Amino acid sequence: MTASGVPIRSRRRLAAGALVVALLLGGSVIGGCTAGRSDLGTGSSVCYKGLPTAVSAVHGAGRLKGVRLVPLSTLRRFTTDLYHAARRAPGPRLTHVCLVAFSGHFTATTVEKHVGRQRGTLAVVELGYPDNRLLATLVVARQPLPFSHSSIGLF
Question: Could you tell me the CA-to-CA distances from 8 to 12, 18, 67 in Å, in that order?
Fold first, then answer.
């Protein structure tokens, strides 16, 4: 017993019960923010369907660094190699492309539809949007544009 007359064991149970209730309420609030969504909350989610094609373009090498849906007008500012590959693509004129970046060690002979440097530590696979056909694979030494979610404001 404490000075207030409430046993210590009861206080602990009460505190534990309050913690459980708080966690359940917090979980339901956070869960409500994401309920009913089947994507990542970014405009690039549609590009994840092209991952098998992108992995095949680098022959399974490297580590996935990011995926982006990029308008051609933005792409032109960052890399003309991929911009021109998209403009030359047969079929309907593209307005957007999906870019899938892999970090690792790549050479012109270890990727499909090579453009860019002969060797580098990043391969950026360019896929047509919305059909996910392989357009080009850019091999570079450094990342030509951001691929993290924190950089979404750029596009």
Answer: 6, 15, 54
Q: Which residues, listed in sequence order, are joined to residue 139 by a DSSP beta bridge?
A: 116, 123
3-state SS string over 77-142?
Answer: HHCHHHHHHHHHCCCCCCCEEEEEEEEEEEECCCCCCEEECCEEEEEEEEEECCCCCEEEEEEECC
What tokens were used for 29? 């609030």
pLDDT digits (tens, 9 = 90+) for 86-103: 999 998 899 999 999 999
Rounded CA-CA distance 123/54 in Å is: 10
Contacts of residue 91, defined as CB under 8 A and 6 or more positions apart, other chains included, come to 128, 131
Average pLDDT score over residue span 104-127: 95
Distance CA 85, CA 139 (A): 14
